[in-house]
Amino acid sequence: MTMEQTCCINIKTDLRELRCEAEAGEVLLDVLRRAGAVPPAPCGGNGTCGRCTVRLNGSVLRACQARVSEDCTVEFSEQSGGAILTGSSAVGSPAVSAVQAETLSGRKLCAAVDLGTTTVVMELLDADSGAVLGTASGWNAQAPYGADVITRCQYCMEHGDGVKKLQALIREQTAAMLKELGASHSQVQELFVAGNTVMQHLYAGLSPAGIATAPFRPLTLFEDGRENGERIAYAPCVAGYLGGDITAGVLACGLHRRREHSLFLDIGTNGEMLLGGTDGFLGCSVASGPAFEGVGISCGMAGINGAVSHITWPDGAASPLPETIGGAPPRGICGSGLIDLLAALTEKRMISGSGLLYGPDEAPAEYRHLLEEDENGNGIFLLTEDRKVFLTAADVRKLQLAKAAVAAGIEVLLEEAGLRAEDLDRLYLAGGFGTYMNVRSAAAIGMLPACLVQKAVSLGNSSLAGARLAALSEAARRELNTIPSRIRYLELSGNRAFNRIYPEQMLFYEEDDDEWN
Fold first, then answer.
1. For residues 56 and 66, is the Cβ–Cβ distance under 8 A?
2. What is the pLDDT of residues 88-139, one digit of tens each?
3. Cβ(310)–Cβ(337) under 8 Å?
């Protein structure tokens, strides 16, 4: 009988250096997860995204495909592509804004949490005055196990301890956020959590397996709202893919009290939407995927310093003008920048109506200097002069699938309600992406009806705002709990109307016979 060999792993990133031990034969990505420092792994380690690239003893390879066999040094960037830090020592590089001039002692405290698939935001609240005492935010600590809820569900289904592990990660994260804000769980009377149905299941330690497979039934819709034996409460959900983040958002903007026909849209890894007003709502969810958050895109990244967030292309200009967050040199492109870039390439006819990114031989002559071909003859658009920030044909395809899903979901709701887009009074855009997205650009690529551009209202983080109201007021919580019963949910999996409309929404524009060469 031989003893398992123990290997010493030296982890070097652009942020820190760590050491850990691993058993010979362990998958490297699992070792990095355990150490609390991982490269991006949006596919959850299934070997399909190719994003978990590291340098192992000088050789470049994918961490999910490599096994530890000896003492080694692993190098990668934790900042590149929005990589996520995990563990209590580094909870997603949290951004903290706290009012700590006076002590919290003696105050009645509660907290509101927007539990997003990609990011988590917390507010520490004075339960008596309603004052926001501080805010913390960070990348969701579960992200190394998948960029979207389906991948995390699969992880839980394939690993017996998956639910327990992901619950521990997210609870450690919120505990660390409270600590960053100067409080502890013992001081906080209640933590009110609003997130999609899968995220709320994982926070509660419940298996989300039923949500991932037909007929997509969650274990609970959190109708009761409170967790037994814990000072934790949850926003009620509508269905497996229409969660507490949406009901909290409706509460925050008072949409259920508005006598109008309005569209409420929250675009994230899922595109969740409601159509209606005081008379009730139709709701649905589409699998838009994480592309609009920069995940799975060659130069995609989160909305941090150096991310291209907006793009303009003045008439007569030889190339577009990128605007970055923080004014830093461009390092990648975040969701709002991707929408702007798609709109610009569509306007300049560098993308065909069917979504083909042209190569230099097919594009309009005045823009060919911005293009090159990959090894398969597909186009690559070069956004920066140093050629380090670019968009590929495969990137366009992923964004095209996402925009078509959102557009088709909207059309299905309108058709079911017997309305036209022109009949709507308002378009409410929730979440970070909706706040920073250029609505005109979204309409230009066919993701939103053009007639709604002038009717759009950005709500910001309505999930957090609704969670705050519910955390501070029992009356608001009772009102929140009535919202799910006002919503008729349409399951789009297998829906004939969606399957008919979705291919139509793949088009960027109707092609004509114009020659661009």
1. yes
2. 223 334 455 655 535 677 789 999 999 998 889 999 999 999 999 999 998 8
3. yes
| Rounded-to-integer distance, Cα 309 and Cα 336, Å | 5
Whole-prediction pTM value?
0.83
Structure tokens at 415: 């058709």
Radius of gyration in angstroms for the set of CA atoms belonging to the chain, rounded to a whole number:
23
Evaluate whether 109 touches 100 at the Cβ level (below 8 Å): no
Please report the sign of the dihedral spanned by the C-alpha atoms of residue 101, residue 103, residue 108, residue 111: positive
Beta bridge partners of 10: 19, 73
Q: What is the mean pLDDT of the segment spanning 74-96?
A: 49
Q: What's 4's DSSP letter?
A: P
DSSP letter, residue 37: B
| 201 secondary structure, DSSP code | H
Residues 6+ apart with CB under 8 A from 100: 134, 182
pLDDT 10s digits, 177-208: 999 999 987 889 999 999 999 999 999 999 99
Domains in the chain, ordered, with CATH? Answer: 6-82 (3.10.20.30), 104-234 (3.30.420.480), 254-517 (no CATH)
322 neighbors 308 (Cβ within 8 angstroms): yes
- 348: which 2 tokens? 């300049």
* pLDDT, tens only, 342-358: 999 999 999 999 999 99
Half-sphere exposure of 255 (CA within 13 A, CB side): 35
As a whole number of angstroms, the distance between CA 377 and CA 260 comes to 50
Cβ neighbours of 493 (radius 10 Å)? 12
DSSP codes, 95-115: EEEE--SS--TT--EEEEEEE
According to the model, what pLDDT value does residue 314 have?
A: 92
Q: Are 140 and 119 in contact (CB under 8 A)?
A: yes
pLDDT of residue 382: 96
> What is the per-residue burial (b if ≥16 Cβ within 10 Å, else e) of 376-412?
eebbbbbbbeeeebbbbbbbbbbbbbbbbbbbbbbbb
CA 352/CA 287 separation, integer angstroms: 24
Alpha-carbon separation of residue 472 from 126, 196, 294, 321, 465 (angstroms) = 8, 21, 34, 45, 11
Residues in the chain: 517
Helix (H, G, I), strand (E, B) or coil at 213: coil
